Amino acid sequence: IQKNKITQRRWLNDDDVNSCLKCKETFSVTQRKHHCRNCGNIFCDSCSSKTAIVAASSKKPQRVCDNCYKDLTS
């Protein structure tokens, strides 16, 4: 996660990730993939349910992962 934050904040390709990068839950029709708008990694809904203002993004709060939420709000 840290590496992706530092290296241009590119979103991971959906096809490259089959499970949540935090809790390891496998994605399926009912368990959807969500990109963190800060680090670009892919998480399940539970691990990316928070929102925060992301630099160089919309002025509206964006979906972020739990780790980025802590970083952005502390």
Protein described:
- The chain has 74 residues and is of the alpha+beta class.
- The chain contains two helices and four strands, in the order αββββα.
- The chain is globular and about 30 Å long.
Which properties best describe this structure?
18% helix, Herpes Virus-1, single chain, globular, alpha+beta
Number of strands: 4
Shape: globular
Number of domains: 1
Mean pLDDT metric: 88
Q: How many distinct helices?
A: 2
Regions with pLDDT < 50 over 5+ consecutive residues?
A: none
Compute the separation of the termini in Å.
Answer: 18 Å
The radius of gyration computed from the alpha-carbon positions, rounded to a whole number of angstroms, is: 12 Å
- What name is given to the CATH topology? Herpes Virus-1
- The CATH class, by name, is Alpha Beta
Hey, roughly how much beta strand do the residues contain? 5-15%
Order of helices and strands: HEEEEH
Major sheet: size, sense and barrel closure? Answer: 2 strands, antiparallel
How would you classify the helix and strand content by structural class? alpha+beta
CATH superfamily label:
Zinc/RING finger domain, C3HC4 (zinc finger)
The level of helicity is 10-25%
GO molecular function, one term: zinc ion binding
Pfam families: FYVE (PF01363)
Domain FYVE-type: 14-73
Keywords: Metal-binding, Zinc, Zinc-finger
